[in-house]
Design a protein that fits this description.
about 280 residues; alpha+beta; GMP Synthetase, Chain A, domain 3; 10 helices; 8 strands; globular
């Protein structure tokens, strides 16, 4: 969300050390962004921009915090790098994180002051968040690849058992927790489903704790990803961290087409981007 894609320059120009080039100019962009949003960010001077924002603290969380994305229960989240680890991480690095006595593997989405500013604007300060254990090692990556393969193998088994128990469930995604203490099946259904017998049978097959989680159609689109009618990646799967309530009143206020089929996303709900033209207080 806070990065400029400069890959087109790599195709048209022979830039040596392109990755470092892109990283350097993205850092400049982020510094300018911070100065524009909050001129006195991290200073002792009270910032009028922050004071005009009723949901923010003037204080800044001093911990070393990064943003991560994870296929498990954490999803898009913040993680702390403790002082004893003292890791130097960059965007797209893979890390092993710890939360609630469990471990997961995740991708680094963002690092640096832009994360602190985002947390400040979300009024987050000294909250309990997962911790980074280490940068993923070669063994960690091999284990991660094994988990991905086992997830794919579990899908036909799940569908077979759903058919056997005559349950109206559509499988969306499967996720093995990194430590393999939990296997999660995400599904959609028209209503509540009694899956107790199904869960017991799956637990006997996979020899681990089974969790079946029902999600909505918007969450399904976020997990699966794809291209919208605008030709770009779905907003929900690329940068949105939560869903706003999109109503027909929003459509009416903007005087856009009343043809709801054209205003609906692949999930069947009104497009998230319809809210982008609204003032924040709305």
């Amino acid at each position: 969300m806070y990065n400029i894609d400069l890959s087109f320059l790599q195709k048209t120009n022979s830039i040596k050390g392109f990755d470092e080039f892109e990283r350097r100019y993205n850092n400049i962009y982020k510094e300018n962004l911070i100065n524009k949003i909050c001129p006195n960010f991290q200073s002792e001077v009270e910032c009028s921009e922050c004071n005009n924002h009723p949901r923010t603290y003037v204080n800044v969380d001093k911990r070393n915090i990064i943003e991560i994305s994870c296929n498990g229960l954490l999803g898009d989240n913040f993680c702390e790098i403790t002082t004893e680890n003292n890791l130097n991480l960059e965007k797209d690095d893979m890390v092993v994180i710890s939360f609630d006595s469990a471990t997961e593997i995740a991708f680094v989405d963002e690092v640096g002051d832009i994360v602190k500013l985002r947390r400040q604007r979300l009024s987050l300060l000294n909250d309990e968040i997962p911790k980074v254990l280490r940068k993923a090692t070669e063994n960690d990556l091999q284990k991660y690849e094994t988990n991905l393969k086992d997830e794919e193998k579990s899908k036909p088994i799940f569908r077979e058992k759903v058919e056997k128990h005559k349950l109206n469930m559509k499988l969306v995604d499967v996720h093995y927790q990194f430590d393999r203490k939990r296997l999660l099946f995400y599904y959609t259904a028209d209503g509540r489903v009694d899956f107790r017998e199904l869960a017991k049978e799956l637990a006997s097959i996979f020899k681990t704790r089974i969790e079946l989680r029902q999600i909505g159609v918007r969450d399904e689109a976020k997990k699966l990803g794809g291209l919208g009618s605008c030709g770009r990646e779905y907003c929900c799967s690329s940068f949105l961290h939560n869903f706003k309530r999109i109503t027909t009143q929003i459509v009416s206020d903007q005087n856009v087409s009343a043809n709801l089929s054209k205003l609906s996303g692949p999930c069947g709900k009104l497009k998230c981007c319809l809210s982008y033209e609204l003032n924040e207080e709305n």
